[in-house]
Amino acid sequence: MSGGGTETFVGYEAATSGGDKKRDSLGTTGSPAHLIIKDLGEIHSRLLDHRPVIQGETRYFVKEFEEKRGLREMRVLENLKNMIRETNEHAIPKCRETMQDNLDQVLQRFVCFSCESF
C-alpha cells in the first residue's frame, strides 16, 4: 500500500508542478496558450484577411489583360498592314488607271471644245 501512496504523491507533485509550470510558461513561445493564440491568428488571417488573395487575383488580371491587349493590338496592326498592302497593290493602280482614262477624255473634250470656239 505504501507504493500506492507514493504513486499518488508523485502524481500530486506532477500535477502541482505542472500547474506551476503553466503559470510560469504562459508568456513563452512553446506554451499551449501561445500555440492556441498563434493558431487563432493563422485562422483569422486565412478566413478574414483577403489581401494576399486579392493581390494575387489583381496580378493575374493585369497579366491577362496585358497579354490579351497585346494580342489584340497585334491583330489590329496585322489587319492594317494587310489593308495597306492591298491598297498599294490593287486600289492605287486601279485609281491611277481610271484617273488617267478620265483625264484623257476631259483633255480631248477640252481640245475639241476649244477648237470649235475659235
Give a written overview of the molecule.
The protein has 118 residues and is mainly α. Helix content is 91%, strand content 0%. It is built from 3 helices and no strands. It has helices at 2-24, 32-48, 51-117. Residues 1-28 are annotated as: Disordered.
Blueprint of the fold:
Elements: H1 2-24, H2 32-48, H3 51-117
N to C succession of SSEs: HHH
End-to-end span in angstroms? 155 Å
Radius of gyration: 46 Å
β-strand number: 0
Q: Quickly count the helices.
A: 3
- The structure class reads mainly alpha
Overall shape: rod-shaped
Low-confidence stretches: 1-25
Main beta-sheet annotation: none
Question: Which percent range describes the beta-strand content?
Answer: under 5%
Summarize the structure.
Helices cover 91% and strands 0% of the residues. The chain contains 3 helices and no strands. The N terminus is likely disordered.
Which structural traits does this protein have?
118 residues; mainly alpha; rod-shaped; 91% helix
